[in-house]
Amino acid sequence: MTSAYPITERQRVELKEQLRLMAFDMAQLVDDKQLQTIQMGLGKRERLTALLDGELDFHGENGAYASHDLHAFAAKFPPQLPRAFIRGLTQPGDIVLDPMMGSGTTVVEAIIAERYGIGLDIDPLALRLSSAKTKPLNADHLREAGFGIIDSAKTLLANKSVIEKELARRFDEPTRKFIDYWFAPNTQRELLALVIALENVTDAYIRRFFELTFSSIIVTKSGGVSRARDLAHSRPHLDPTKNPKNALDQFALRLRKNLISIARLKTNGTSAFPLVGDARCMPLPDSSIDLIVTSPPYANAIDYMRAHKFSLVWLGESTVNLSELRSRYIGSERVGQHKNTAFPPKPEAIIRRLSERDKSKAAILAKYLAEMGMVLCEMHRVLRNDAAAIVIVGTSVMRDIDVETHNCLAEIAATLGFDVVGVAKRTLDRNKRMMPARFGRRSDSMIEQRMHDEYVIGLLKP
Ligand SMILES: C[S@@+](CC[C@H](N)C(=O)[O-])C[C@H]1O[C@@H](n2cnc3c(N)ncnc32)[C@H](O)[C@@H]1O
Predict the structure, then answer these.
(1) Full set of structural domains in the chain with CATH
(2) Global pTM?
(3) Whose CA is nearest to atom 17 of ligand 1?
(4) Any idea what DSSP says for residue 297?
């Protein structure tokens, strides 16, 4: 591997020994540059600069190690990204936070690097998923319980009338309509039989693992066993010609895969705390966090709930509650009452330009930036002094205007007291990153074009 900062073989050996004593896992360290910046005992700012200048694309690298591959999640970032910053900027035993944790990539990386991981999210699927991905479980025990669930579900299915009665009783009217629209009658019976069987698992962590295995047969790019054609890239479309596979068979297949995945999770004594919490008002004390690595929703409003609803309705959530929750997502297009925020010059100018073309789009952007201002303010409050925050975000094009989300957020962060150490660009691996449906109708190919790149904003609380 080439490096801008070559070191001799002897230095490398000495450094490896030094790092071994510091309990770093050598195999996981990323590149020579990172090794050398640690070796040189550089300050946090220099280390952050070196990391931002280093490899951030990670194309072709395997992102399916540890428990990362338990379940699909829109706009999940490659685990190598938080890994590089966690290992380069913190020590074992430090506390790493992701206030918009999604599928928990940052918290998983924190615990496998012997740091503590705290994650916040308001999305019920993100919370379930992160809690399952960060809890090591005994694979033999899980295997036995998992195949027990399949056997119980088969027995339940043999008694069609019981299942039919339960289907008629369990859901409120709007949820029932949703299920009838998106799931074939056979599939409904199979899914409900699995749900009833997994509800009988008494250990909450084990049950969570099975709930996620269950969910992962529905929330997939192809729409899984639902009748949706695509849950990843567009508004879901009903495909009446789709012949969904048997849900029990899919569960068995996914179970085998997820058993391997969870068995790979090794935490070495630290743990993760995935919590329900709004990033705009974090339930965390001042100056308590050693590093933040996070990726907020994009300004063009990714609609997580649209896909997540498909499995959450089976796990006890009603469509009405889920729709209400949608408006609390950062980036949601529902422009409610919000105070006029004074922005720094760059975001102010972009909002003004956009407003000349489309007032309602300008209001959506202003709301997004105001909400992200609240998140950045909270990030600043909970970080210790000399601790970094890494914010990974893509820009958006609205009415042909590149809203430069990264530059706007960097300027807002600076007004809040952050030292903006740098903004690096990374290119998305289009084959890997599942980009989800967005709010509203958009056919602007510029948006797709922009989504090839995203930006890594490196901030330091002085
Ligand atoms: C781009 S995703 C994060 C993906 C994550 N980095 C991963 O690797 O899976 C953004 C997340 O922000 C969450 N989010 C949106 N609004 C939020 C809020 N007000 N408070 C906390 N999380 C929020 C969404 O639910 C979503 O899970």
Answers:
(1) 64-122+271-300+338-461 (3.40.50.150), 139-263 (no CATH)
(2) 0.87
(3) 329
(4) P
